[in-house]
Amino acid sequence: MRNQLLTGYILHQKPYGESRSLVYLFSEESGVVHGIGKKNLPLFVPIQFFGNGKNSLKTFSQSQILQNHIILTGQSLYAGMYLNEILQKLLPVEEPFAEIWQAYQQCLANMATLFVKPAQSPHDMTRLKWHLRRFENVLFEQLGYGFDFAKDALGDLIALSQRYQYQLQQGFMPVLPLDKPDIALTGEQLLTWYQCLQDETSFNQMMQQDFDLAKQLVNSISAMHRHLMDNLLNYQTLQSRELWQQLTQYQ
């Protein structure tokens, strides 16, 4: 990399000497890039750098903040930290992911509208989970672990009344009547979720017409996503998740 212009978001940074930081950058041009740059750069704001270096650790210079950073408050702040941590852990280095880049920007913008006083809504937590699950769906697809909502793991069409359990690298496996898995969703839930992913209007209508149903669906999908995410992370501890859980306990 020689004097390459990079536009990116800081995923993580830690001190490197007295005036510099080791920076984990998620860039539009090259995906995740590691480098040495200016100290105390803001999170959740696009920043431009010039990247130089032949080794895996680049030098970032001439940093420029492109816009006022998005303000994430309350639960959204911890959700933003969660996004940064999973990208840092899951994405390969110096490989661009245009779809994930776009989904990340959109997710940050959506989360910034939540938990804003005095207009905070009691539905904000469900909407926050919805935005996170939409982002994760793009992430899973780009990493080769996308969900097949048309057919189950046996090659049969998803049936509305059938219960399914997601199995890594196989898909949605039908659950036998006497089985009681920890996480199972009906075919109707899976197809409703797929429709919501294709058209956000469907989810917004569900939130307005039957909030309890929307909340139940989001919570069920969240459990399934966590199972897949934990597998991809090889069950590594997420610091952002632990901090988030501590916040929830003391509220």
Automatic annotation (TrEMBL):
| Record protein name field | DNA repair protein RecO
Question: What Pfam families does the annotation carry?
Answer: RecO_N
Key words of the record: DNA damage, DNA recombination, DNA repair
One GO BP on record is:
double-strand break repair
Q: Which domain of life is it from?
A: Bacteria
Domain (DNA replication/recombination mediator RecO N-terminal) ranges: 1-67
Species of origin reads: Faucicola osloensis
Q: Which PANTHER family match?
A: DNA REPAIR PROTEIN RECO
The answer, when asked if DNA repair is one of the entry's keywords, is: yes
The UniProt function text for this chain reads: Involved in DNA repair and RecF pathway recombination.
- Mitochondrion listed as a keyword: no
Q: Which family does it belong to?
A: Belongs to the RecO family.
Assigned GO CC terms = bacterial nucleoid
